[in-house]
Amino acid sequence: MAPAPIFEQPNVAEPFNTHRDGLALEATSDDIDQVNVLKAAMRVKQGTATQEEKDIYEKSQFDAEKDKTQFRQYEDACDRVKNFYREQHEKQTVAYNLKARNNFRFKTRAEMTIWEAIEKLNTLIDESDPDTSLSQIEHLLQSAEAIRRDGKPRWMQVVGLIHDLGKLLFFFDAQGQWDVVGDTFPVGCAFDEKIIYPGTFKNNPDSNDPIYSTKYGIYTPGCGIDNVMLSWGHDEYLYHLCKDQSNLPEEALAMIRYHSFYPWHKEEAYFWMMNEKDVKMLAAVRAFNPYDLYSKSDEVPKVEELRPYYEELLDEAFFDHENGIRGRDRKLRW
Ligand SMILES: O[C@H]1[C@H](O)[C@@H](O)[C@H](O)[C@@H](O)[C@H]1O
Ligand SMILES: [Fe+2]
Ligand SMILES: [Fe+2]
């Protein structure tokens, strides 16, 4: 029997490809290997691994491809980046996060289509990013184009196109860039040494809190990353918007929500939080990451030439079933 479609197919010429690559509905053997490695890593770090899982994990460490070192060189980064993280690491507290989430829920800041959002975002220069000299629109299109070039599914191309649109927060009610951009990390438990510039957390009031400063803090091991409060910013904001207003599948939502959570998806910190679902979501987030990072050096995309292609993808991803409005025309609530 054919697998069920990921989401209802809107009435457009070519439906979204339901094959999820690396995350297949009908998983390939590579997908299964990848998930097994991540599952083994989780169990090793949680101290519950069998001997077989320990062996799988060790082998994977040995096989791991060398990092592409020209990106994310924070030690050599300019003062702009260092100052950004010092401020962010001092100000992202549990109290602030509760307030930001509350504020988000009860407000619509603007009504805009995706393309209007892309154009509006373009004036932002991201203070946390040591790598890109491109504008935001160019970065979004570059990521999407790299995903498309590799023949990945249409919904993943959409993720490439929109994944940083949450940075629009900066133009609404952000307090600066520190609550919009940069890598994310959990609040409510101890800050891990694997976060970049870990020394800068010492002036965060939560570092002296008797509960928040403990390893597990307000969480329990295996609670699942969906139940953890990550520092507030563009990932979390856009995730909620897409969860409520798009037809994107679960893996797409995870890519959006966790793409900046490098301490987890790259450094393998906080594995104690993971549950079974997170193993699959981690595979998805890792499948997306190279397109976010390593496409930053590709050639500059021609925006107006590419627009018609992506508008068709948006028609599906944001098709408004209730009112029969094409995704490209839909005024989303931001
Ligand atoms: O500086 C970058 C940038 O802000 C990205 O949009 C974010 O996803 C990364 O995690 C961060 O390191
Ligand atoms: Fe981002
Ligand atoms: Fe990005």
UniProtKB/TrEMBL annotation:
Cofactor or coenzyme needed: Fe cation
Major site of localization recorded for this protein: cytoplasm
Alphabetized UniProt keyword annotations: Cytoplasm, Iron, Metal-binding, Oxidoreductase
Record-linked InterPro entries: Inositol_oxygenase (IPR007828)
Top-level class of the enzyme under EC nomenclature: oxidoreductase
Places the protein is found: Cytoplasm
Pathway(s) this gene product operates in, as recorded in its UniProt entry: Polyol metabolism; myo-inositol degradation into D-glucuronate; D-glucuronate from myo-inositol: step 1/1
Annotated SUPFAM superfamilies: HD-domain/PDEase-like
EC number: 1.13.99.1
Cofactor binding: number and manner: Binds 2 iron ions per subunit.
Catalytic reaction annotation: myo-inositol + O2 = D-glucuronate + H2O + H(+)
Domain of life: Eukaryota
Similarity-based family: Belongs to the myo-inositol oxygenase family.
Protein name, per record: Inositol oxygenase
Organism: Coniosporium apollinis
